[in-house]
């Protein structure tokens, strides 16, 4: 009997690997001799680096980089333990590790000033390590500079009408006159960049980066208008370029507005491909190979609700398991509104792990025990099908 355990992390409580270990422990009480295949998962957001490193036996690299406020911060990225289909080693970078909103105190949040420079420093460090395949997870950013800071860190020259380098931050894009990418990191042209992106917003306008994501980063209505105009100007300058290495018209593409316009920057200037995060993860960790001969697949995340079917980890895992008609069970910290939407998509059953009304502190501290107990009960019920046969 083969059981694949492919959960996401339980935020603020357990990593994806710790969740998988707890589920395995519970199932082993009932099926001690089963073959357990643990594949830590993520959907491109927070925890993606750790999950993919754990799933492939890779390692974490820590670096001091420029934070969103221009001051040094400790950041990290992962190098996967197995090569990709082309034999290249892969680096996984979470944009938030270097330019995340959590790195900016609430009283200092100002997307006119915050920069993605540190993301570029992480990319450059990976290139210096010999990496030629990068997976970049967007989300959780404090920035609204369309990746301009990232490009500056990689060697691009963004200059104003006087020929001086523009300042860092979203507001400075309004002063941009020309961009020269000839001095980019020499290895960037040989690197394949996949971007985990789960939003479809364009760069500008009422659904753009500034209007939709600016408020959570500290932008007032006046700042939103200023930032939107700056992004539009940035796109116009790029679209005037004659370089064959720049992709034109990306500002209208789905996902261009992700992470303060970073989606636009990586598509236009780094020839990156945007894909749903969970699809990138499932492909990279070769989940299909593990599921094709499985008897049961177990997945989960901290909360399963009506939004889970829109690109979250349990839905991504379910889609893979369905290819091989493998029954799939979801385990969650809690079930929210319309959680049964994933049942309608083909999941066999979903279970919450909280046994009683508890404080949040208690729920988080007891997560591993509750998860193991729930997994054991699920295994016990599943074992009845074998007894009946």
Characterize the structure shown:
Keywords: Kinase, Transferase. One of its GO terms (molecular function) is kinase activity. This is Glycerate kinase. Belongs to the glycerate kinase type-1 family. It comes from Shewanella litoralis. The chain has 389 residues and is an alpha/beta fold. The protein has two domains: 2-40 and 291-388, Glycerate kinase, domain 1 (Rossmann fold, 3-Layer(aba) Sandwich), CATH 3.40.50.10350; 48-277, Glycerate kinase, domain 2 (Alpha-Beta Complex), CATH 3.90.1510.10. Helix content is 35%, strand content 18%. It contains 14 helices and 13 strands. Strands 3-4-5-6-9-10 form a six-stranded mixed beta sheet, with helices on both faces. Strands 2-1-11-12-13 form a five-stranded parallel beta sheet. Strand 3 (59-66) and strand 4 (72-79) form a beta hairpin. The relative contact order is 0.15. The model has no long low-confidence stretch (mean pLDDT 94).
Short description:
This is Glycerate kinase. The chain is α/β, with parallel strands linked by helices.
